[in-house]
Specification:
- The structure is a single chain.
- 37% of the residues lie in helices and 16% in strands.
- By secondary structure, the chain is α/β, with parallel strands linked by helices.
- The strands form three sheets. Strands 4-10-9-8-7-5-6 form a seven-stranded mixed β-sheet, with helices on both faces. A four-stranded mixed β-sheet has the order 1-2-3-13. It has a four-stranded antiparallel β-sheet with strand order 11-12-15-14, covered by helices on one side.
- α3 (69-81) packs antiparallel against α10 and α11 (333-352) runs parallel beside α13.
Length: 453
């Protein structure tokens, strides 16, 4: 069934204008004038009562959808006891219970502990600080296209084009990520893992980045903000082996794709490896601010009080985190994400693959990327089409975003509870958005106010 696009309503327009007048640009990236009033399950409702199917999950935060009753009850029960109980100079039971749960879940046959924060950015920054303290090694390695946070230290660690003008990070060496669609070394992708890791080990390690000075390598096992890039299956085992050869810690940033999104509880389980530290955030708090580092005890005990916040490990957020994990395990969310993610990928390929501007469709579980190009031969990134499709999707009642180093990849990270009927509905709406944009029904003027990235 074809949907008719809806224009911006009076109330939404007024809120958008207030947003432009009152909210700092530094905190926002606008793709459309969505004004959230309430949300439930996989649907968001704006202030005019209009419903939107959510294919973005608030940048992969809403794993369980919105307003999960079990999480809400856990938060309400904790608030009845106290609105706040932190970890800095006291102990609270929810934090202990959540730490015990995470330590038991995270793979690795070594003593582990948990550290708690409020966002993925602070987890990434604390990990850097603790690694350098524990190892005494000044250097870190990350990958081009990576996104590890938005504090100064984590932007310097990241390799995303959005942070290209960030000054700092002289201790960070960035290496190419094995992108099968856009091999950074040219040619086909048959040897892209060996090319990327060989460049690090055989060239950088012998010239400007001695491996004995490297404390850790930070990696996303699916590079989400860099363009939803799924590396070849041999990448993680070979990266782990490289770290072991040189005595380097491996830190997996699972902030966006962990806790079931890829079809395993932790994304690096696809590679059959263990990480020395894993970073968690976004979905961990079930909608409340919560992040964690889980991993080697000797790293997280590198110093007393050297990575703390007054509100870190607060009982309310930890209660939400524990309830979120309970739902994920009890309702088989990980297996559901694997099965429905395969179905989502199939539907995207069948439906969108016929459009000439689609260069590649890739994904793992419930994170999928649709890369848009001007033509398949040149693979030239098509950012204008991405902006228009995302905007038209909003007009049709579907929420998603675009990302990538060239802002040309439609990122699809829906709630993990999404049904197959909702998958079909969302893909049909997205297909209509494609058709409308290709037919010239979305003007440059319509999206001019929504710059995105």
């Amino acid at each position: 069934m074809t949907m008719e696009p809806q224009a911006i309503g009076t109330a939404v327009q007024a809120a958008f204008e207030r947003d432009a007048r009152l909210i700092a640009d530094a905190i926002k990236i606008r793709y459309n004038p969505l004004v959230i009033d309430r949300a439930e399950g996989s649907r968001i409702y704006d202030i005019e009562g209009r419903a939107y199917l959510d294919f973005g999950a608030s940048w992969s935060l809403a794993h369980l959808g919105y307003s999960n009753p079990h999480v809400r009850r856990a938060v309400a029960a904790q608030l009845e006891k106290t609105m706040f109980a932190g970890l800095v100079s006291a102990i609270n039971q929810p934090a202990l219970d959540l730490a015990e749960k995470l330590v038991g879940l995270v793979p690795g046959d070594f003593p582990k502990k948990a550290w708690f924060g409020l966002s993925g950015s602070d987890a990434s920054e604390a990990a850097q600080r603790l690694i350098r303290l524990a190892t005494g090694k000044p250097r870190l390695i990350s990958f081009v296209g990576s996104w590890h946070g938005t504090t100064d230290a984590t932007m310097a660690l990241s390799g995303h084009t959005a942070f290209a003008d960030v000054v700092g990070g002289a201790h960070v060496t960035k290496v190419p990520y094995p992108n099968p669609y856009r091999n950074p070394f040219g040619g086909d992708a048959s040897r892209v893992t060996d090319q990327c890791l060989g460049f690090l080990e055989d060239y950088l390690f012998t010239t400007i980045c001695p491996p004995g000075d490297v404390g850790a390598i930070f990696v996303e096992t699916v590079q989400s903000d860099g363009g939803d890039i799924v590396p070849p299956p041999d990448f993680l085992p070979k990266l782990r082996a490289l770290c072991d050869r040189h005595g380097i810690l491996l830190v997996v940033d699972d902030i966006k794709v962990g806790l079931g999104r890829t079809g395993t509880m932790f994304s690096y389980e696809h590679g059959g490896i263990a990480a020395d530290l894993v970073l968690l955030g976004k979905s961990l708090g079930g909608g409340l601010p919560l992040s964690a580092i889980v991993g080697r005890q000797e790293i997280l005990d590198a110093g007393t009080g050297v990575a703390l916040f007054t509100v870190s490990g607060n009982a309310t957020c930890c209660a939400a985190g524990l309830a979120t994990l309970d739902v994920i395990e009890r309702e088989g969310i990980v297996a559901q994400a694997a099965a429905n993610g395969a179905y989502l990928h199939q539907r995207l390929v069948e439906t969108l693959g016929r459009h000439d501007i689609v260069g590649d469709i890739r994904g793992l579980g419930m994170i999928q990327g649709v890369e848009l190009v001007t033509d398949r031969a040149s693979k030239a990134p098509n950012q204008p089409a991405a902006a228009k499709i995302v905007y038209r999707a909003w007009e049709l009642g579907l929420i998603l975003y675009y990302a990538g180093n060239w802002s040309n990849v439609l990122e699809i990270t829906p709630p993990l509870i999404l049904s197959r009927e909702e998958i079909d509905e969302g893909v049909a709406l997205l297909d209509q958005a494609f058709a409308d944009v290709l037919a010239g029904r979305v003007s440059d003027a319509a999206v001019a106010r929504f710059a995105g990235w």
